[in-house]
Amino acid sequence: MIDIFLSTYKFFLGATWLTLKLTLTSLFLGSCIGIIFAFFRLSKKKALNYLATIYINVIRGTPLIVQIAILYFGIANIVTLSPFWAGSLALAIHSGAYIAEIFRGLIQSIDKGQMEAARSLGMPYHLAMRRIVLPQAFKLAIPPLGNQFIIGLKDSSLVAYVGMQDLWGAALSEASSNFQQMNTYIIVGLYYLALVLILSYLVGKLEARLEVDSKNRPNRTFKNLFQFKTASS
């Protein structure tokens, strides 16, 4: 196994970088999609709410590999996507459905009295959401988002089945040439494990940093309200 590791580490490091680019791209797009559809789910407009409900139910109810195949093969007559972008968009759309539900639940968990207090002071809805509700929701979202990002990292291995040489695609290619499938797959599993541990560490540090900031500024929400009241008067 050590011989395989030493002979393939350059190949797998390149594949690791490709996996990271794919994961970061898809998670950024997925977070944007998720936030938009979270607001659609919370909207009082039935059309937006209905659209978000259909999107979330369809995406969560179908396998990710099917979504990747549809974007790569199914729409080839309309637009041709590279394996990278087919995988990135499929992962973004897939993770966006889960992120939307994360943010919807967390926004609804914030005490409604805070929004009512902001509105009573004359603060517009979008400003109250941006300055009062969303900062608290983002802080609470760190643990579930961290879990979703880890799932997204591991789910990225499915793009290998549309010909992309990410970590798992590189493992399939290497295993077919050296005929040592078990050892090769164990080595690639360790690469994935290292990425997950690094991501978990970064999420933990961010969560701890936000906890320290909240202890140093415990009345930040009400301070924002006071500043708005002073500016308005």
From TrEMBL:
What is the name of the protein in this document? Answer: / Glutamine transport system permease protein GlnP
Question: Which residues does the UniProt record annotate as the domain ABC transmembrane type-1?
Answer: 16-203
Q: How does it sit in the membrane?
A: Multi-pass membrane protein
User: Which keywords describe this protein according to UniProt?
Assistant: Cell membrane, Membrane, Transmembrane, Transmembrane helix, Transport
- Domain of life, per UniProt, equals Bacteria
Family matches, as CDD domains:
TM_PBP2
Known InterPro entries for this protein? AA_ABC_transptr_permease_3TM, ArtM/GltK/GlnP/TcyL/YhdX-like, MetI-like, MetI-like_sf
Query: Where does this polypeptide localize?
Result: Cell membrane
The family assignment reads: Belongs to the binding-protein-dependent transport system permease family.
Does the keyword Membrane belong to this entry? yes
Q: Which SUPFAM superfamilies match?
A: MetI-like
- State the Pfam families in the record: BPD_transp_1
Q: Which organism is it from?
A: Bacillus badius
Q: Which residues cross the membrane?
A: 20-42, 54-78, 84-107, 185-204
